[in-house]
Amino acid sequence: MRRLLFILAALLAFAVAAQATDKSVNDSTRWSLTPHYGCGFNRPSVKTAGHVSSAVVIDAGFRFDRHLNRHWMVGGTLNFKYADGEINDNLLTIGTLGIGAGATYFWRALFVDAGLQLNVPVFSTFSNRNLEAYDGKVDIMGHTHGVNLSLPVGVGVQLRHIVLRLGADIGLTRVYNPAAVTSVRNNLVTLTIGYRFRLK
Q1: The whole model's pTM is what?
Q2: Residue of 122, 131, 119, 121 whose CA lies nearest to 90
Q3: pLDDT confidence bin for 33, thresholds 50/70/90
Q4: Selection from 138, 133, 61, 130 nearest residue 92 by Cα
């Protein structure tokens, strides 16, 4: 919690320091493209009893936005997320393509955003060091839902073209078939850096 508060305070400090860039954020741009890359952690939500620990997340993708006015823009995202989750010494790993839509509100160089995202699994594995088969790793794509839904929200700062964002991707639906694995909703927290290209 302290780390997250420190990051939020740093973003706010950057925003205050970057007030001179206020006019460069949204005034003269109608369309923009923002590729991004970052990392974070996954804190799965599990209904069954047991030990749950955070694991690594990698997030890469881009966002395409329509700038409505000085403060608002709407757009779509396409990203790839690699996420681990450790539950009772079992490591669940999933890679998903996310397709989402959302809105962003700017106040000077600071912004907040929210949206809705569909996540389509590309690969999914289950690992346990006590299993001998496949060196403890089993492909569980057959037990993984074809689509899961999440709620991405974030806060960040844009310094000229550089975009820093602290985001949370809150799982709304189950990732796996609970009869075969366990009832899991992934909750991802990532810190990303991007570059906003003005298209028009």
Answers
A1: 0.83
A2: 131
A3: very high
A4: 138
Largest Cα–Cα separation, the chain:
60
Interacting residues of 90 by C-beta distance below 8 A, sequence separation 6+: 126, 127, 128
Task: Tell me what the mean pLDDT of segment 119-131 comes to.
Answer: 86
- Output helix, strand, coil percentages for the chain, rounded to the nearest 5: 15, 60, 25
- Residue 160 CA to its chain's centroid (Å): 22
Segment holding 193, helix H or strand E: strand 187-195
Count of CA atoms in the C-beta half-sphere (13 A) of 200: 7
* Contact present, 142 and 123 (Cβ < 8 Å): no
φ, ψ of residue 146 to 5 degrees: the values are: -65, -25
- Is residue 127 within 8 A of residue 90, CB to CB? The reply is yes
- Identify whether the C-beta of residue 110 lies closer than 8 Å to the C-beta of residue 12: yes
> Is the pLDDT assigned to residue 133 strictly greater than 70?
no
HSE-CB at 7 with a 13 A cutoff on CA atoms is: 16
Instruction: Measure CA 119 to chain center.
Output: 11
Cα–Cα distance measured from residue 26 to residue 30, given in angstroms and rounded to the nearest whole number: 8
Alpha-carbon Rg for the chain in angstroms: 18
169: number of Cβ within 10 Å: 26
